[in-house]
Sequence to fold (123 residues):
Amino acid sequence: MVWDIPFVLRLMKQKSVKQWSRSRQFLDLKQHIEDIVSKKFIIMHKGRKAGMIRLYQGEVSIAVSEDSRQRGVAISALKQLCSKEQSLWASVNKENRVSQRLFMRAGFLFDYDTAEDIIYKWK
Ligand SMILES: CC(C)(COP(=O)(O)OP(=O)(O)OC[C@H]1O[C@@H](n2cnc3c(N)ncnc32)[C@H](O)[C@@H]1OP(=O)(O)O)[C@@H](O)C(=O)NCCC(=O)NCCS
Fold:
């Protein structure tokens, strides 16, 4: 469905999302309006907005609303994305174990790590 900036900004304010936010992944209102280069998707689950995916230069950022978690929403969205894109990568904080498990379960492979992050690639 069409990109819904108010929904995405509300999602970004959730504590557990904010915790792992980085400026290049999660944008403010002005940046959202000006951002015409990334691909953005609202993830729907049972007819409700459940999360979002942003794709910028192959990098996937994903967040699912706290009230829609652990129902397979993220993994199903990632698998759909992987079936459409040539190559993808993700940068996950070393302490963000949930997200690490998510990307591994979706078929991403360890590529390399930095002091703070693990870089996963798909294909
Ligand atoms: C990471 C996140 C997107 C997962 O969303 P979700 O819809 O709850 O995930 P799913 O239900 O699709 O779970 C997929 C896999 O992720 C892992 N996972 C999800 N929630 C988990 C939890 N609470 N504990 C451990 N593993 C978990 C599991 O491996 C799970 O598969 P499995 O249950 O078959 O083992 C969500 O927790 C989130 O938005 N977190 C905050 C933002 C963030 O960290 N984004 C990633 C930065 S790129």
User: Anything to note?
Assistant: The two ends are 27 Å apart (CA to CA). The chain has five helices and six strands. The chain has a mean pLDDT of 91. The chain has one domain: 5-122.
